């Protein structure tokens, strides 16, 4: 099997010797965790969230077996900060890790980007480290993108340097960089290239399934699968591309969905992967003691993947940060349930600790709140009023900060202090800016946003002495037609 062939013998031996014995597996009380993180996942990509062109029967079944969240957010509109927030339980602003690594360069822009962090510091105890301290085996598969490429401490920030026993595929890459990209050869750490035509999502799933077979007899474990898909380059097996080309010919596109046959094929391969993992858990007899969490790192890379929400990845509006979140917790979460409470990626770390019956680490997951009461039905709200974002960078949007407080969302653009205010209950698609009409509410939320930035030590931008106003290009102005970047 792929996993056994590729993981170094010493590392595999360590994994086999750690944890409980086979005899105690049946007596295990701590749940296993399967964490599935999808790259560039749009609000409208799954059937359970309204997709009709894409086919996701396994993910839809997962939602029917667990709880679906309707107000779940990524901690940033781009990938690296969101991934760091999940692993640390901290806002990107607190970590000073606020852009995709290594970010865009705009030396002539109006504001200078702060000297931000391109790594997670080792003095932080990450989610896998917290679980390992209580005898969890930990495996990482897929996209890492949390390494300071080209800097002296590059080799000190692989997944295996941050609490994972095993790393398959993870390094500084934000997208597949191997010779075949999503097709063999892959050129990825600890992943064999397989046969010509093999697809990356399938091969990574092979190794994840092998990890389950190794660890299942001696629970507990954390399988952290961070898919490279659905990030570009958009490509899928030829037979799936043809399938969706044919489907598009007669498809009545009433929802303005993204009828991209290759992307639809990528979604189907993702769904197949989820189905294979769920089937393996059942085969091994551990499905009833395994929590499955499925979410994304930021919005889709096209405004037709966001279920009608405004904009997409890299922008400041809902389509860039509102994310699907499905959690199955057998015996605790009511199948087919849904939750409207606001949650964010920072919440998953403390939630998993509480699910496992482990002590919270409030000095680590400083910005996360356990959502366990929502999952068990003990509560329908959390003791929190607001969520925050801080993006002191140029991307498709100008630099901005944002706060969502109840039904209200305020966006502040740093260059000129311009404010946008939306009532998401009345206007979920952010079609009408009401900042002028509700100026007092805008001022109130701006004061709250400023207080939060001070509290977390958010890095501020400064005036750029090299600013050339006439050189500000369309991407810096937030041109909706620009679809580049990470």
Describe this structure in words.
With 486 residues, this protein is of the alpha/beta class. 51% of the residues are buried. It is globular, with a radius of gyration of 22 Å. The protein has a single domain, classed as Alkaline Phosphatase, subunit A (3-Layer(aba) Sandwich), CATH 3.40.720.10. It has helices at 2-6, 9-17, 57-65, 79-88, 92-95, 127-132, 200-215, 238-250, 261-283, 318-321, 348-355, 372-376, 439-456; strands spanning 32-38, 67-69, 72-73, 111-112, 137-142, 166-168, 221-226, 290-296, 325-328, 337-339, 343-344, 386-391, 400-405, 408-413, 419-423, 462-463. It has 13 helices and 16 strands. The longest helix is centred in the middle third of the chain and has 23 residues, at 261-283.
Overall CATH architecture: 3-Layer(aba) Sandwich
Mean pLDDT: 91
Strand order, main sheet: write it out.
6-5-7-1-8-9-2-10
How much helix, percentage-wise, in residues? Answer: 25-40%
Enzyme class: hydrolase
Cofactor: Ca(2+)
Organism: Allorhodopirellula heiligendammensis
Protein name: Arylsulfatase
Layout of secondary structure:
Blueprint: H1 2-6, H2 9-17, E1 32-38, H3 57-65, E2 67-69, E3 72-73, H4 79-88, H5 92-95, E4 111-112, H6 127-132, E5 137-142, E6 166-168, H7 200-215, E7 221-226, H8 238-250, H9 261-283, E8 290-296, H10 318-321, E9 325-328, E10 337-339, E11 343-344, H11 348-355, H12 372-376, E12 386-391, E13 400-405, E14 408-413, E15 419-423, H13 439-456, E16 462-463
Parallel strand pairs: 1-7, 1-8, 2-10, 3-11, 5-6, 5-7
Antiparallel strand pairs: 2-9, 4-16, 8-9, 12-13, 13-14, 14-15
Keywords: Calcium, Hydrolase, Metal-binding, Signal
Pfam families: Sulfatase (PF00884)
EC number: 3.1.6.1
